[in-house]
Amino acid sequence: MPVSVQLLEALDDACKEEDQEKICDVLDRLQETDLDVDFIVKHVGKKVKLLRTHSSAEVKKKAVALTQFWKEVVKKKVESSGKGKGRAAVKVKEEEVKQEVDNAAKIGKDSIERSGKIAVLPERTRAINHKNVESCPKGKPVVYWMSRDQRVQDNWAMLYAQQQALEAGAPLAVCFNLVDSFLGAGLRQFGFMLRGLKEVEEELKELNIPFFLLRGDCVKTIPKFVKDNNVGLVVPVWVASDKQEVGARTLRPKIHRLLPKFHQNFPAVMSHPHPWKTSPPPTDFEAALKSLKCDESIPEVTWAKPGSAAGLENLSKFLMQKFKNFNTKRNDPSEEVLSDMSPWLHFGQVAPARCALEAKSFSKMHSESYASYIEELVVRRELSDNFCHYNKKYDSLEGCAGWAQETLKVHAGDKRPHVYSLAKLEEAKTHDDLWNAAQLELVHRGKMHGFMRMYWAKKILEWTSSPEEALKFAILLNDKYNLDGRDPNGFVGCMWSIGGVHDMG
Q1: How far is 487 from 447, CA to CA, in rounded Å?
Q2: What is the pLDDT of residues 246-257, one digit of tens each?
């Protein structure tokens, strides 16, 4: 749901409850948000005008100020458009406003009715074999092999799969292949993932699209599923750069050149008109979780609820309550201004593009926070993906630059006043209270403040017998406790702190 619609609903709720404090809070957020002019005129403007006669002097004052502010916004928009004056000029973009405030399903349905297909950029797809993937044989089922992007909406691979199925008049299904163990992931990480997939299955059911949880080696399970179901097309998941970048300064301009093309709103996955031959029984996710061969000693967290719905709710809270202070206070661990979106982003339950699109609504009022957020959300994430994709030694000191390896080698024999074992580090039993607090946050919360993550890793280098051991311990602890462990961001964070990766970037 767009931020503009969320604010409109919040204002309605506050007015119904006659909660003056809430009304004032929503009015403040409305003034901070970069709203579409047509949305102001057609929807929220009328409601705010009514509040100019409210019994509360504070509400009345804010409503009058906001109305005057919006008048200036509309005036500037009309003057810049060159399409006339007054209200008539504002209505020129009526169709765009309808698309903004309509629900996602309506947008998706309209896009298909107008063009006969969901518009997925060719740049978003690539062939992984030499077979023709331009279209699916008529009537033969299409399967979306879900992996990194574990969500239904805001998912271009899912949209492409439905596009192919609709054009072929064929059924559509989604499968996910679950392995018994994955790079040391434990109950904490598998639990978050599987509970998110349960939401995926429920959402797909509402759209007449079955979900299949496969178990075992995908080299065997996927071909068997394709054969058993006579599948005509399998859509797996997939360019910012064609080489390893030395740092953010070289990747940043490439990302920003591509943003206008890839930074577009998503159509919606619609209810699928061609049913699967038989409906599979509901997946027993609890049984699947209990059957895994994983470490059960680290409990699941309670602060972050798995699934796209909870992730988007957290995003909305961040943008409305914390975003204005993000640029100035994001590096202060004592301030709660971070988005805390990493668990949902790591498991693909929320799209980074959705975060960026929603943040754009606040870009004019909080331009510096927006720039900082895009730098971390898009540029730094893409830089991490780029490094792990092009550097096969992404988790080894051999993957560091030559100057970094030489520096570490020269100082390998330096005297270390404190040397700790893995057990002492894991139990947060060092002489440094600040480091211990960061480690305990990691253990109990499954997440560490980004600024403290850097300090945490650099101290491990200082307190271990060798750089190789430091990197090994840092990656092990990160992957064991962090909800977003085994992620390019985690590997690159450790490699930067210990091996200088992307320094001078």
Answers
A1: 13
A2: 556 666 676 666
